[in-house]
């Protein structure tokens, strides 16, 4: 379904079953048509006016070979603490681990990026993608009003500036990026973009351009994302009802005007809540979740043809059950990328990333056991990936990429550690217009 990531808002719950089915079907189609109608209208109008419009369309086909293959799902009713081979495999974060659409080893994809300069003060931007990872999804759809070169306001679907994904970079060497927050559906949703409003300022300091950004966001607005719940989405059962999701961010971007090197600092706070309706078991308690993300990154040109990028995110997550803070988490993500351009038609890249989840439990009276559950080492997961990629320009807008990924992980509950390893080799053929 086009724009499958969008769902009609909860106000249709009082309608008949047929009405709800039609609403869930027609609403994504309407939003999809709105995006492309806007692009076509802007393209037509730009030719008849002085609007300045730039559009990039790139698409292609990816083919992955994975080893080992994904295990079968475990039987229902198993012990959560004992884990499963499937959970161990998914923690490797290989290309089939966490996708919006059903994974297929051969898959097409498409990216559309467009900017329209309406006049000296107004600019419109759209970034849209269709792939296995995110489905058909709008990453950016914003209006930018800048009354002066020193300040402005953005509204619409805007980026939090707390990641640095190369999704729309026309010269990206990667098929699947090293940063796990750019190649896992659940992590992308919590840390990428949402409907909101941003205020920003621009300042020149010698050879540097500095931009400061503050924003507030409501991911549930227009049903953009109705099921994001921090790091806990996979743990919620089907009778859980998502009720609210609010985010606030601060970011600082620094650009060296002569070399193109950049640095970024970001803070993102997310607050979500929901409850189980109906409550089917003792542990169906009301849930609240607060996640704080501290982000720092630098993308530096060591030489005109050599780039080094480093990013680091620290996540502090607090999970509340019926008003009691039960699960505190301290998670950390690090990524290093090295990109070298040996010729005008080739790019070589090396990547490394590590993502660690460390969760404790502080439950004074667990409904299932009837007693206190207090454990610092309740859950632990560490995933590390090494990547190498080669991109070659074929000419006439065509390019191909070859990527190798090796991943390892350990994870487990209550002091247990279950290891795992995996490999992936990917081939991409793409065309850019």
Write up what this structure looks like.
The longest helix is centred in the first third of the chain and has 32 residues. It is globular, with a radius of gyration of 23 Å. It folds into 2 domains: 49 residues; 383 residues, Porin (Beta Barrel). The N terminus is likely disordered. The protein contains 3 helices and 16 strands. Strands 1-2-3-4-5-6-7-8-9-10-11-12-13-14-15-16 form a 16-stranded antiparallel β-barrel. It is mostly beta strands. Helix content is 10%, strand content 56%. A hairpin with a 3-residue loop joins strand 3 and strand 4.
Lateral strand order in the biggest sheet: 1-2-3-4-5-6-7-8-9-10-11-12-13-14-15-16
What separation lies between the terminal Cα atoms? 25 Å
Strand content: over 45%
Query: Which value, in Å, is the CA radius of gyration?
Result: 23 Å
Total of domains = 2
- Unreliable runs: 1-25
The CATH homologous superfamily of the largest domain is termed Porin
According to DSSP, the number of beta strands is 16
Structural class: mainly beta
CATH topology of the largest domain: Porin
Tell me, rounded to a whole number, the average pLDDT. 87
Helicity, as a percent range: 10-25%
């Amino acid at each position: 379904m086009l724009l499958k990531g969008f769902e009609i808002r909860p106000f249709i719950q009082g309608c008949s079953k047929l009405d709800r089915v039609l609403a869930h079907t027609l609403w994504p189609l309407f939003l999809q048509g709105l995006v492309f109608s806007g692009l076509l209208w802007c393209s037509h109008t730009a030719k008849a006016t002085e609007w300045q419009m730039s559009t990039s369309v790139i698409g292609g086909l990816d083919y992955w070979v994975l080893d080992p293959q994904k295990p079968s799902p475990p039987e229902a009713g198993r012990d959560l603490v004992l884990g499963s081979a499937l959970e161990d495999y998914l923690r490797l974060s290989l290309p089939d681990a966490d996708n919006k659409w059903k994974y297929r080893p051969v898959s097409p994809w498409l990216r559309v990026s467009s900017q329209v300069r309406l006049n000296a003060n107004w600019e419109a931007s759209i970034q849209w993608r269709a792939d296995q990872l995110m489905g058909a999804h709008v990453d950016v759809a914003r209006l930018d009003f800048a009354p002066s070169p020193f300040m402005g306001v953005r509204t619409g679907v805007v980026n939090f500036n707390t990641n640095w994904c190369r999704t729309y970079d026309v010269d990206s060497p990667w098929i699947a990026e090293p940063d796990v927050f750019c190649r896992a559906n659940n992590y992308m949703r919590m840390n990428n973009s949402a409907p909101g409003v941003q205020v920003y300022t621009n300042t020149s300091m010698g050879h540097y351009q500095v931009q400061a950004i503050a924003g507030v966001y409501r991911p549930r607005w227009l049903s953009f994302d109705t099921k994001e719940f921090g790091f806990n989405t996979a743990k919620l059962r089907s009778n859980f009802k998502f009720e609210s999701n609010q985010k606030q961010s601060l970011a600082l971007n620094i650009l060296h005007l002569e070399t193109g090197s950049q640095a970024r600092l970001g803070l993102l706070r997310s607050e979500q809540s929901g409850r189980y309706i109906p409550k089917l078991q003792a542990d169906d308690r009301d849930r609240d979740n607060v996640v704080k993300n501290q982000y720092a990154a630098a993308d530096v040109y060591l030489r005109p043809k050599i780039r080094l990028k480093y990013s680091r995110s620290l996540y502090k997550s607090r999970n509340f059950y019926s008003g009691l803070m039960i699960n505190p988490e301290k998670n950390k993500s690090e990524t290093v990328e090295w990109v070298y351009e040996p010729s005008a038609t080739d790019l070589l890249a090396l990547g490394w990333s590590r993502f660690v989840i460390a969760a404790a439990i502080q439950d004074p009276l667990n409904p299932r056991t009837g007693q206190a559950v207090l454990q610092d080492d309740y859950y632990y997961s560490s995933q590390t990936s090494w990547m190498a990629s080669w991109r070659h320009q074929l000419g006439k807008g065509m390019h191909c990429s070859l990527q190798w990924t090796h991943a390892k992980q350990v994870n487990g509950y209550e002091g247990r550690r279950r290891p795992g390893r995996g490999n992936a080799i990917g081939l991409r053929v793409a065309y850019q217009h």
